[in-house]
Specification:
Shape: globular
Distance between the termini: 51 Å
Helix content: 40-55%
Structural class: mainly alpha
Number of helices: 18
Strand content: 5-15%
Length: about 525
Amino acid sequence: MQWRSIVVGLVVLRLSLSCVLWLAFGLGPNVSWGFNFPLGFNLHKLDLLFREEKVTEQKSNSWSQRIPGHSHEKTASTCSRVGEESPKRSYLSFFDGNKDEYVRRYSSFPDTLKAKMKDMAKEMFYFGYDNYMKYAFPEDELNPIDCEGRGPDVLNPSNININDVLGNYSLTLIDTLDTLLVIGNVTEFQRAVKLVIDTVSFDKDSTVQVFEANIRILGSLISAHILLTDPKHPFGNVVFEGYDDELLHLAHDLAVRLLPAFENTSTGIPYPRVNLKSGVPPDSINETCTAGAGSLLVEFGILSRLIGDSTFEWVARRAVRALWNLRSNETGLLGNVINIQTGQWVGKQSGLGAGMDSFYEYLLKSYILFGEKEDYRMFQAAYESIQNHLRRGRESCNEGEGDPPLYVNVNMFSGEIMNTWIDSLQAFFPGLQVLNGDVDNAICLHAFYYAIWKRFGALPERYNWQLQAPDVLFYPLRPELVESTYLLYQATKNPFYLHVGMDILQSLEKHAKVRSELQYTCSGEDAVRLEEIK
């Protein structure tokens, strides 16, 4: 097995904690992605950042014009909205200044600045990690407002925003293991691994979402185990005396506890939640989202290969195939919510955001990891359907009339637009385009999300592309834009993306950091509301 490829794949998938540390300063181990992109990248590729807004007549490829048949209630908001009589502004105009200024600013990223950003990222990491270990461990996470640990909401089982993720298994510590190696702290990594081995058990009466437990816990355990045992030592020889595959055993135990989700389902698509001690709850719903059910293959597939048991990869692949076979015959698109017993689509919205995003991501990343041609055939077909039915705007990114490309939410059967918002999860897609070799379009789409970030200092959870204003006014520290920025930097080596990383890092430090009244005695980071950013 190509352990080096698996490690690289896992690090990409686990960017939720570590990618900021890699992209913002361009330092650390030199990871080669094995791609040779035929791209002569220059700043003129980002001329959309500098283009003067031109007044033109309405064009069919201009998505920023009002769509007939859609009405929008006027609601009070602290964020500005573009009124009907206000001059229309492209999102490109959110960048102030002129072309010469941006060429001067973005054409280089000095080594001294890299070192400064590296130190800043490390300080931010330890600020959160040290306070979690001091005030919250062994609970799942630190509540930075109340300065205490937080686990499942046992008094309110219906609080799925908390209970889907927190399972009373020291989530933050497990989720941090590989990040400790990324920043070079081998001693603390080894100490944290031993702490997980000594204290973590999954024999808990906790009902968690299969998807969340998979990507956060199972993925973290597998990643750390491979980093410990990889004979090529991508981060140096970090194994310690006496390690006996305990992390792998924990991962196997967790996966076995997730398997009941795949039982007693007519379609092979798993239930969304399981109780780690007793299996699928008797009152479990029969509806799940496409992303949740179709984003298990990477972790389950690697586990099967590590332990020599094909069961886990088999059930994950069966779920992906079942979803794929239920796509629309007319458009080739999938919906976002499905009944696992009847195979009927409950949610018919097809897009790149919540409920859909990682389904596409895992098709391509599974192919990169495992080399199964079936995965890439599905991804190619899905990508073509996305381009045919979700993409709006002019045909070329940097040329022609109308707005630059945008991917909208449509009805999976008709391809008609269902609403005029996108969500922050969609910012993963430029990174996926990079992995697929479509770098020009990735550059263009990434600029759209970065323009929004520049305007607000964060990505709104939902952004109305017609009104050019947020629909949902908070940002829960999502990493998708960071991952796309990182992959674009790796593909192009253009310093512009280091500046983007620096902007994101500084925004998080400014807006997401919680400081207590007692001289920072307990602090951390939490979600940001846009109206609180001044």
